[in-house]
Each structure stands twice: as structure tokens, then as C-alpha cells.
Amino acid sequence: MTDIILLDGGMGQELVHRAGDRPTPLWSTQVMIDHPGLVAQVHADYRDAGATVHTTNTYAILHDRLEGTGMEDQFAALYAAALKEAAGVGVLAGAIGPIGASYRPDLMPAHDVAVAIYTEIAQLLAPKVDLIICETVASVAHARAVLEAAAATGKPVWLALTVDDTDGTKLRSGEPVADVFAVAGAASAILANCSSPEAIDAAMDVLATCGKPFGGYANGFTKISDGFLGDKPTVDALIARKDLGPDAYAGFAMGWIAKGATIVGGCCEVGPAHIAKLAEEIRAAGHHIVAP
């Protein structure tokens, strides 16, 4: 019998499905302007599904994402809006996404530049969240910079690594996942995220040796397409899997728990129904779902 922290599922894709709008490079950020209250509704649905940690809708709020959108001067206001939508839902994990684009470690700026960018974000999040979650970290350099910035707030920091979909023992940069451990001293937990569940299964074997609490939350895409790896990508360049319903996803996540994972949840294309089924399976296995 183990205490399991249950994360929520994906926010951006869930918002796209509910809003019915064509995705833009701003992803879920635009939804807060066009459909106020929808983010709060998604948060509430994950809470009702059994999630004990709720990730703020701040992943894509970076200055570089706002360039050319007419919203460049709304950076702090967008953080305030996302934090307001999450208020009162439970334990909050303030999300920090990658600079430039997801899955693009080649876009990481110099260390000092990256630390300054992440520090501004971490300082906006820290007063309103219980922990900071650095998501879709694709390289060792990315891990080092974002941890330096987030740890300076004094909040617990979770590091979530995105791994190669064909070899989950490697980061998207091609570096071994284990190479992150040398720079991850400030992390309270190390996770694998936004990769296929099969790849995350392989990553669990590596993370089990990190000496910290570990876990994973996978996406439900067939693959990360070439179209998504260009400039200003939109999520309509990605295709959802047809074989990853709630039962199948819960099966993967229970496998991670069997390997020692104590933090599980879902990423893109994993919705409230998936989290509800996972909560059911966790309890059926005799584990306790807890908050951090």
C-alpha cells in the first residue's frame, strides 16, 4: 500500500476541445481571453475526478510566445488571470513551460539569459502556488537553468522531463535522462512528461535510480510531427491516438506505480475521464491518493 499523488490531466488540449476554436500559437492562453471561466471549469472537473494537484494554465505564457500577437504587454496580467482561474481548487503547481517551443532544446538561450527569463516567471507564480513544476524539460541545460530560477523562490520544485518517444531513457536532446540527476539537486521530485506512455515506461526505470520521489504523466499523441517542430506551432499539427482511452491509460500509469512511481497524472489529450479511471484503479489496488 503506497501513498500516491494524483496530478490532473492536460489543460491546453482540453480547452481546445471545449472551446471549439481553431488552435492558435497562443494555445490555451487565448482561451482565457475569449472564454473566461473555462479554465476554472476544467480545473474543477479534474478535482472532481480525484486529482490532488492542479497545474496552473501558465505553461505557454512566455514573452517569446506573445511576440507578434498584440498581447506583448499583458504578460503579468495573463499570469494573474491563470492564477485566478485556479484559485480555491486545491494544491496548486505553478507551471513553467520551455522557452521558444516544446521539444526544441536547440532553442534554449545561453544559461544566464534563460535563468533571467525563468526567474521572472517563477517570481510571478511563487506567491500564489504551493509548488512549481518545470514542464517538458528537454535537455540538461534546460533543467539546470529552470531549476536555478525556480528553486530561488523557496517553493518545492518538481522537474518534469520530456523524453524521446522511441527511447525513453534519453531526453529529446539525445542526452541520457540520468545525466539530469547531476544538476537536479534542488528538485523535490523528478517526473517524465509529455511523451508517449511507452517511452515514459522506459523512463521510469531510470528515474527509479534518482534517489527522489518520481513519476510520470504522458501525452496521447500518435507522434510529435515535423509540422509541430517549426516556428509558432499549433496543436492541430498533432494527432490524438485512438488506442489510449481511460482504461488503457490507467494501465500504463499503474505500471509506473508498480515500478515505484508515487506521482502520476496526465498530459495533453489525457482528460478528466482518464484521471477518474486512474483514481479508481489506484484505490482498487489498495493505494491511498494523497496531496503533497
General description of the model:
This protein is α/β, with parallel strands linked by helices. Helices cover 37% and strands 17% of the residues. The protein contains ten helices and eleven strands. The chain has a nine-stranded parallel sheet. β9 (214-218), α9 (246-258) and β10 form a beta-alpha-beta unit. The relative contact order is 0.16.
How are the secondary structure elements laid out?
Elements: E1 3-6, H1 12-19, H2 28-34, H3 38-49, E2 53-55, H4 63-66, H5 75-86, E3 91-96, H6 111-125, E4 131-137, H7 140-151, E5 157-161, E6 163-164, E7 167-171, E8 189-193, H8 197-207, E9 214-218, H9 246-258, E10 263-266, H10 272-284, E11 288-290
Parallel strand pairs: 1-10, 1-11, 2-3, 3-4, 4-5, 5-8, 8-9, 9-10
Antiparallel strand pairs: 6-7
Distinctive features:
37% helix, two-stranded antiparallel ribbon, alpha/beta, 10 helices, 292 residues
How would a crystallographer describe the biggest sheet? Answer: 9 strands, parallel
Give the structural class: alpha/beta
- Helix and strand sequence: EHHHEHHEHEHEEEEHEHEHE
Based on DSSP secondary structure assignment, what is the total number of beta strands?
Answer: 11
Strand order of the largest sheet: 2-3-4-5-8-9-10-1-11
Average pLDDT figure: 93
Helix content: 25-40%
DSSP summary: helix tally:
10
Beta-strand proportion: 15-25%
Please mark out the parts with pLDDT under 50 across 5 or more consecutive residues, or reply none: 224-237
Broad shape: globular
Terminal CA distance: 17 Å
CA radius of gyration: 17 Å
